Amino acid sequence: FWWCRARGQERLSMAESEGLMPQDLINAKPVAAAVKEFFGSSQLSQFMDQNNPLSEITHKRRVSALGPGGLTRERAGFEVRDVHPTHYGRVCPIETPEGPNIGLINSLAAYARTNQYGFLESPYRVVKEGVVSDDIVFLSAIEEADHVIAQASAAMNEKKQLIDELVAVRHLNEFTVKAPEDVTLMDVSPKQVVSVAASLIPFLEHDDANRALMGSNMQRQAVPTLRADKPLVGTGMERNVARDSGVCVVARRGGVIDSVDASRIVVRVADDEVETGEAGVDIYNLTKYTRSNQNT
After folding, report:
1. CATH 2.40.50.840 fits 249-296, yes or no
2. Which residues form the DNA-directed RNA polymerase beta subunit external domain (predicted)?
3. I need a surface site. Which of 27, 154, 175, 269 has the fewest CB within 10 A?
4. What would the pLDDT profile of 65-75 be if each residue is shown by its tens digit?
């Protein structure tokens, strides 16, 4: 892109630039070549893991330290691979491969997002004078360092006031205890620390970290069942994973199901959601026998 811009400016500055058209200034071939090279041969352009909906969504949320401009497995030492305090709420401390890539390939935490500069941000509730508000702020690791951050499980009364004399907090990347009036932020959820796959493990906090790592990795290897059924024990994240992976049929509008067969679902839309001059029927054609990348 830089090369294209430089060439375009160079041609503009030439004497006979009056009658030039945009296509005369910019040569798209190097841009197309760079895009093709990335998708065709880059280490970070991968064939999607599609064993089940979880493996698909996890692959899309992967964070890698390898690839162009990154580290190599041989060069990376223990410090790079280890869990760091700034991973909290941004990168999952549990889900990572067990082999030579351990700690170099990670998974995005459940509520993390990237900001405009490419840094990972984590959400927090604002706390003022010991009272927890519903205002949410997203902060990067640098921005949160000076804040005193309470855990999501901190005890509150019905007025959302922190009631413990001393609250367990994080401050300057250390764990300590502070008075409620010193607290400035609070975690939004206990599961914001871990990834989507790890948050599907019931009673995760009672598990050994090594076994939790194996469990979150092995969930991605499960093949789909012929007759899907809801789990007897769950964490509440199952619905979100299924819906956000894009493999589920989700109703666009509310209404009553008119008919169901093997190929489609017909929904009679509720009267208050029907636009004027529109047929009040939504038809959802079901995809059947579609091949996934792993033939599952």
Report:
1. no
2. 124-189
3. 175
4. 999 999 999 99
Cβ(85)–Cβ(74) below 8 Å: no
The tokens for 280 are: 């009040």
Kindly state the tokens that stand for 228. Answer: 């899907």
Take residue 231 and report the two structure tokens written for it: 């789990």
For residue 192, the tally of other CB atoms under 10 A from its CB is 19
Dmax (CA) for the chain in angstroms is: 78
* Model pLDDT for residues 265-294, shown as the tens digit of each residue: 999 999 888 888 888 899 999 998 889 999
Q: At what angle do helices 2-12 and 29-41 cross, to 10 degrees?
A: 180
Pairing status of strand 174-178 against strand 167-171 = antiparallel
Domain boundaries, the chain: 2-41, 53-111+193-219, 121-188, 249-296
Is residue 261's pLDDT more than 60? yes
> Tell me, what's the pLDDT at 17?
59
Alpha-carbon gap, residue 94 to 200, rounded angstroms: 12
Q: Identify the DSSP state of 248.
A: S
pLDDT of 170 over the 80 cut? yes
Query: Cα torsion at 12, 13, 19, 25 (round to 10°)?
Result: -20
Instruction: Characterize 6-20 residue by residue with b for buried, 16 or more Cβ atoms within 10 angstroms of its Cβ, and e for exposed.
Output: eebeeeeeeeeeeee
Beta bridge partners, 64, equal 105
